[in-house]
Amino acid sequence: MRQTFDESTDPSFGSRHVPLIRAAMARQGLDGFLVPHEDEHQNEYLPAANDRLAWASGFTGSAGAGVILSDRAAVFVDGRYTLQVREQVDQAVFEIRDLVEGGVPAYLETASAGSVIGYDARLHSPQALDSLKAAAAKAGAELKPVALNPLDEAWGATRPAQPIAPIVPQPVEHAGEDSASKRGRIGASLAALGADAAVITAPASIAWLFNVRGGDVIRTPLPLSQAIVSADGSARLFVDPAKVTEDLPAWLGNQVSVETPDALDAALADLAGKSVLVDPGQSSAWYFDTLAAAGATVVRGMDPCTLPRACKNNVELEGTREAHRRDGAALTRFLHWLATDGQINPPDEKEAVTKLEAFREATGVLKDLSFDTIGAANGHGALPHYRPTERSNERAALGSLLLVDSGGQYLDGTTDVTRTVAIGQPTAEMVQRNTLVLKGHLAIARLRFPAGTTGSAIDAFARAALWAHGLDYDHGTGHGVGVYLGVHEGPQRISKAPNTIALQPGMIVSNEPGYYKDGEYGIRIENLEVVMPAEDIAGGDRPMHRFEALTLAPIDRRLIDKALLTAEEIAQFDAYHARVLREVGPRVEPEVRAWMEEACAPL
C-alpha cells in the first residue's frame, strides 16, 4: 500500500511543542511567531521535515496557518478543514479561526502594542507579508525577520532529515521538448522583458524546465532545488549533491552548471547590477530581500515557466490521453466491483481505498498516487477533503452514497477523478441533487467560449442548476493539473474567485461541481478536461475554445433522474458513455466489459 491510514500527529502536539517554541521565541526577544503551512518552496504537499504547522499544532491539512503569541495561539483553516482541525488540534492551546474571513491579518490587529512578532522570510511570499505587516502596524506591533527559525530550533534533533531522493531524467518521449529548447524559449522571454535572469524556486517549474523528476515530496515527483536562468538560456541549478545521479550532468548539458545549495547566496550576490525576474507569488520574501541587498534590480512578475508549463504540447497531451485510458480501465474495474460485490457486502472506506489502489497498481506502471484517495462513506462525503484513518473509518451503509476522489501518477500523465456511487437504493433527494450536479458538469464540458476567457467567467455555468434550487458548493469548480507533476497546478482554474489568466489550448483543468449535505452525504462528479481550439461556428466572428474530456469512466446511472435533463444533456451524456465503452471497454476483462455495456447504455 502506498496510502496508509495512520495519523502522523495527535492533539497533544500543541501542549507538548508550543512551550518549546515559546522558549525559543523568548531567547530571541520575540513576543510571537508566524507559522505558515508553506515551506521554503511554497509547496502544497510537504516533506515531513518541512511540515512545521503540523508539528506545532497537530493540524495536517494542505492549507492553513498558525500564530503563536507569548500568551495565546491560533490555527487558521478554510471551510474544507473545519471538522478535521477540531479533531486534530487541542483547543485548550489553539483557538480555531477562519483562514478566509479576516484570517491572520485580523488576528494580528489584536496584538499588544509594542510587541515584536517574528517571521521566517524564507517561508512567506512578499505579497502575504505586505498585508501581515500592515495589520501588525495597525496594532502598534512590529513584524521582524529572524535569522534562526525558533520553531526549527525547538524541533531540534527530532526533526526528520531533508529528503534526498535522486533526480531522474524525464525522457523527451514524454516531455515533448528538450530542455535546451525550453531554456532558449524562457531566455528569449526574459530578454523581451529586459531582464538579465530569473530566479526559479518552484520545484514544478524546475522539473519542467530541466526535464527531470524527483521524489522529495509525497504524491508529486518534485526535486526540491532552486535555479537561476539567464537570458542566454544558460542556467545554474542548486541541489543537494546526494540527489545528483551519475548521469544527471550529461543529461542537463554544458549550459547548466550543477551547484550545491550553499552556493546560492553567492550566486544571488553575483546578480548585483542586473535586472532579475522573481515571482512574488511563488518565491519567498528572502529572495527579494537578498537580491535587493546585493544591488540587483528586482522585477516582480510571473515565473516565466508557469504559462509554458501549463500549456501542454502535443506529446504531453497524447501521453496524458493514454494515461487516462489506462487509469480509466483501473477505475472501471473498481466501479464494477462496487456495483457487484460492493452492493452485497458494502465496503468500509479503507477497503474501498485499498481495492482501488490495487487496481491501479496492477497496471504495472503506477509511479505513485497523485494524492491520498478520498474514500468517503455516509456523512464523511460532505467533507470535500476527507481522508480515512484507522480511527475515522466507516462502512458504507445501504441507502447511502460513497464518494471516491482519487488519481494516479504515471510517467506519461497525472490523473484526478471523482465518482459518486449509490450503495443500495438511493433516496429521491440524492438522485435529484446528483442530477443537478451532473447538469453543471455537463454544462462546463460542452461549453464553447471565446479565446481570452478566464475560468472565473465560466464558473457560474457549473452552479446554475444548483442555484435554481437554492443550492451551491463552497469549493472551486476546477484546478489545473500537470503531466507527471502536480495534481494542483496553476495558474489556470475555474472558480468564483477572480482570475486574470485566460484558459488557453493545452491547459488541463478539472471539472468538478458538487453538493454536500452536512452529516449525511456528499456528491461530486469530476473529469479532467483539456482546452482545445473549437471548430468555427457559422456566422461567428471570434476564435473559440472548447473542452475535451480526458477522464474516461462510467458515471452511476442509478443516481440520475432523466426527467431533469434536457434532450441536449441526454445526448451529451450518452455520447460520453459511448466513448468510455469504446476506449476503455477493450482494456478490461469480459465480465467487466459486460457490466460496462449496461452501465454505459444510453439513458
Mean pLDDT: 96
How many H/I helical runs?
20
Number of strands: 28
Shape: globular
Structural class: alpha+beta
How would a textbook summarize the main sheet? 6 strands, mixed
Q: First CA to last CA: what distance?
A: 37 Å
Description:
Keywords: Aminopeptidase, Hydrolase, Metal-binding, Protease. It comes from Caulobacter henricii. Residues 319-531 form the Peptidase M24 domain. Residues 544-603 form the Peptidase M24 C-terminal domain. Belongs to the peptidase M24B family. The structure is a single chain. With 603 residues, the chain is of the alpha+beta class. The chain has three domains: 12-158, Creatine Amidinohydrolase, Chain A, domain 1; 168-309, Creatine Amidinohydrolase, Chain A, domain 1, CATH 3.40.350.10; 311-599, Creatinase/methionine aminopeptidase superfamily (Creatine Amidinohydrolase, Alpha-Beta Complex). Helix content is 35%, strand content 19%. It contains 20 helices and 28 strands. The strands form eight sheets. A six-stranded mixed sheet has the order 4-3-2-1-5-6. A six-stranded mixed sheet has the order 12-11-10-8-13-14, sandwiched between helices. Helix 14 packs across helix 16. The longest helix has 26 residues, at 314-339. The radius of gyration is 25 Å and the shape is globular. The model has no long low-confidence stretch (mean pLDDT 96).
